[in-house]
Amino acid sequence: MNFPLILNLTRQDFTERYAGSIFGFFWAFLHPLALISIYLVVFSKIMGSRLPGNSEMENFSIYLVSGLLPWVAFSNTLIRTTTVFQDKKNIISKIKINLSTLPCYITLSESVTFFISFSIFLFYYFFLVKLELNLIQLFCLFLLILFQQLLAFSLGLFFAILNIFFRDTKEFVAIFVNIWFWLTPIVWVPSIAPKWLMEIQDNFNPAYWLISSYRDLFVYSEIIELNHFFLIVLCVVITLSFSIVSLKFFEKDIRDFM
């Protein structure tokens, strides 16, 4: 693994993303802030969404943001990683590098962006709403972010391999992620869904396990549910192992297709 190259590509990614814009780096704050505001207005003001047993908009805003920001980081990492081999084929063809280096820089770049946007939420949570997390909950938060991005990395790596041989993969992933977003209770509350749908979420949806764990910490001020966390770890181990083995198996073919 070439760590200096990963850091250099990450720096380059930030530079290219905000180069020439008036606000530059501040877009990392403005984009999530605008997204949160739109969903908050639509779902709390227009549609009147509230948490069951709690009619305060402040609590719904915490519910919404604690699910939306992790999803944005997860989905952006997954979607961008899917095309990374195609996007960086000039590097692959010119330099002999470990192919996993490229998905790593995408994951690192999106993780930094997530930390920037999430810092706004944490400031609101700790200093304006005056809520607290203990050390155990903070450690749980660190683990959630780590495994969230590992899951996005491993899924993205698998689709990146697939995208080399089937160029429609990136379009499929974009549609899949959009459907996944609306099927997961990120901007809507579970109480409006039929029981059978929530049973499917609880048993088979990794995004639901992640989002629910964030809300255990920030909405309900509890320790994350161990069953959900175990399923997240298991899912990461399986997908990461499969993706790495697939990369080693198809590495020569990937370089030939470049």
Work out the count of structural domains.
1
What helical percentage do the residues reach?
over 70%
Indicate the overall shape: globular
Q: What's the tally of helices?
A: 11
Largest sheet: none
How many beta-strand runs? 0
Q: Pick out the low-confidence regions.
A: none
**Mean pLDDT over the full residue set:** 87
- Reading the helices and strands in chain order gives HHHHHHHHHHH
Helix/strand/pairing category: mainly alpha
User: What proportion of the residues form beta strands (DSSP E)?
Assistant: under 5%
The radius of gyration computed from the alpha-carbon positions, rounded to a whole number of angstroms, is 19 Å
How far is it from the N-terminal to the C-terminal residue, by CA? 20 Å
Question: Which helices and strands appear, and what pairs or packs with what?
Answer:
Layout: H1 3-18, H2 27-46, H3 57-82, H4 84-87, H5 89-94, H6 101-128, H7 135-165, H8 169-183, H9 195-204, H10 206-218, H11 226-257
Helix pairs in contact: 1-6, 2-3, 2-6, 3-6, 3-7, 3-8, 3-10, 6-7, 7-10, 7-11, 10-11
Tell me what the structure shows:
This protein has 258 residues and is mostly helical. The two termini are 20 Å apart. The chain is 78% helix and 0% strand. The mean pLDDT is 87. It has one domain. It has eleven helices and no strands. The protein is globular.
